[in-house]
Amino acid sequence: MSASLIDRQPPRLPVQLDHPPGRAIPLDARTAMLQAALQPARVPREAALALAREAVEHTLPPGCPVLSRGDAAHALWLVASGQVALGTMSQGRLTQQTRRVEPGQWLDVASAWLNGRYLEDACTQSDVLLWSFPLEAVRALCIEHPLLAEGLITVLAVRVRDLTEGTLGLMQKDAEARCATWLLQHAELRPGREGAVVVLRERKRAIASQLAVTPETFSRVLRQLREKQIIEVAGYTVRVLQLDALRRIAGD
């Protein structure tokens, strides 16, 4: 059986459904949080309340897998409390993080609509309360409440715009800034140690293609950063020695 919360046979989820004191959120508060999560669209309380009633609550401890790449998507997911990291897991831990989802933010609002599978792994970074919304129930509510459908479309549109802006912003930087940004995006912090580590899981040619530079340019920038003692390179492992200096180069 998959280690994720979504089983390949969807109806029964292997998660904790108990509600410790102070964790379960009252219906009114749940409705208000959903209205905020669907902004900038103005979803009426009646529609948000209907969606709130469909929420399935899941309480999870830190370090618990939530979604796994390749698992079938049958629901929309929202983080009600705590933090969840998205990225790539290996041997039970998140080795590459792409983003962190905070309370009131959607963990995944797209995959289920495509009848697809999750593209990233997700893992809790603290005690977490999650809400899942079965797709079939959401689809029925969108027919009954068109403004709810508009709210979900707006959430998806904002996400697409943010991704496009991020891509354009990266392309407008010079080669050194692009490489620094890429290293920061793929850096793995090591508890108890300074700096961070980046494992090059793709060939340098493939990474250079993502950054719209030649492989020779990518290698040259890594060499320059090494000469500045900002990074160390050993085989396919890059150790970031000066995170702040790398952020300055990236323009963050």
From TrEMBL:
UniProt-recorded Gene Ontology molecular function terms: DNA binding; DNA-binding transcription factor activity
Chain segments carrying region Disordered: 1-21
Pfam families listed in its UniProt record: cNMP_binding (PF00027), HTH_Crp_2 (PF13545)
Domain HTH crp-type positions: 173-244
SMART domains given in the database record: HTH_CRP
Organism of provenance: Caldimonas thermodepolymerans
Annotated GO CC locations: cytosol
Signal peptide: none
Protein name as catalogued: Crp/Fnr family transcriptional regulator
Gene3D superfamilies named among the record's database cross-references: Jelly Rolls, Winged helix-like DNA-binding domain superfamily/Winged helix DNA-binding domain
PROSITE patterns per the UniProt record, alphabetical: HTH_CRP_2
InterPro entries xrefs: cNMP-bd_dom, cNMP-bd_dom_sf, Env_Response_Regulators, HTH_CRP, RmlC-like_jellyroll, WH-like_DNA-bd_sf, WH_DNA-bd_sf
Protein keywords: DNA-binding, Transcription, Transcription regulation
